[in-house]
Amino acid sequence: MISVKDLHFGYKKKKVFNGLTLTLQPGHIYGLLGKNGTGKSTLLRNISGLLFPDRGSITVNGEVPGKRRPSFLRDLFLIPEEFYLPDVTPQKLITYHAPFYPGFSGEQFNRYLAEFEIPSGNTIQHMSYGQKKKTLISFGLACNAPVLLMDEPTNGLDIMSKSQFRKVIAGALDEKKCIVISTHQVKDLESLIDRITIIDDGKILFDQTIEDISRKLSFKISFDNEDLNEALYSESGLKGNIVVGRNHTGEESRLDLEVLYKAIILNQDKIQSAFR
């Protein structure tokens, strides 16, 4: 569905990507993780055709994003971190923007607004930042575009809204849809995504499915020195040492996405050795 091959891209004073290759398939929710400034937003803008590769190629459903053809644009929706919405009611968004998207569902849009507890009578500019973001997320989901790109969607959402977000996104996935969520707030995507791609300094450090991670790695709290000696990564916690090790038993342990992210950033080679 999305193919990025040998992507080279840079701004005037900064090289961002130097040969990045990535393939994303339908039927998955991808977590694109990394610190701020590592290239996550830049990658999403290249995929959506808002930026253009210096070298290499990107195709989305066989289309070249940079050509910005209507057939490409109607099949992709980008929810950027920074956005502007007109001062209209949510229902007027349907009138003005929904006709462009052939799969748009007004019934879904209203259902998402209700789940997010968005007051239908308010104009958007009289909403809080979090309500504006939830309105945009609701509209993007209701478009039913095969590709949905979301850049830091949980920024500005409170704890309850983040829980609602995870529930809504999980219910929106089907076998024809590819959802890519870029974030540095790792905990917000736990239990939602089924593949993790970690970017750092414009490079892919890690790209594995949750299933493979659970099969190859174990996560546990331990006071055992032997566990610490064999650990691929460990850190001290209030209740003991948090240990990431090889999964020798085949039994799945509860994935701690935040610990995994730190382990890959700080001890990449050891973690990668478990997947070779």
The radius of gyration is: 20 Å
| Strand element count | 12
CATH class of the largest domain: Alpha Beta
Task: Compute the average pLDDT.
Answer: 91
Termini separation: 26 Å
Q: Number of domains in the coordinates?
A: 2
3D shape: globular
Strand-helix topology:
Blueprint: E1 2-11, E2 14-24, E3 28-33, H1 40-48, E4 55-60, H2 70-73, E5 76-79, H3 90-97, H4 106-115, H5 129-142, E6 147-151, H6 159-172, E7 178-183, E8 195-200, E9 203-209, H7 210-216, E10 217-222, H8 225-230, E11 233-237, E12 240-246, H9 257-266, H10 268-273
Parallel strand pairs: 3-7, 3-8, 5-6, 6-7
Antiparallel strand pairs: 1-2, 1-4, 8-9, 10-12, 11-12
Explain the overall architecture.
The strands form 3 sheets. A 6-stranded mixed sheet has the order 5-6-7-3-8-9, with helices on both faces. Helix 4 packs antiparallel against helix 5. The radius of gyration is 20 Å and the shape is globular. The mean pLDDT is 91. It is built from 10 helices and 12 strands. Helices cover 32% and strands 29% of the residues. With 276 residues, it is an alpha/beta fold. The chain has 2 domains: 2-201, Rossmann fold (3-Layer(aba) Sandwich); 216-273, no CATH class. The longest helix is centred in the middle third of the chain and has 14 residues, at 129-142. Helix 6 (159-172) links the parallel strand 6 and strand 7 (178-183). The two termini are 26 Å apart.
Features:
276 residues, alpha/beta, Rossmann fold, 2 domains, three-stranded antiparallel sheet, 10 helices
Question: How would you sum up this structure in a few lines?
Answer:
This protein is of the alpha/beta class and 276 residues long. It has ten helices and twelve strands.
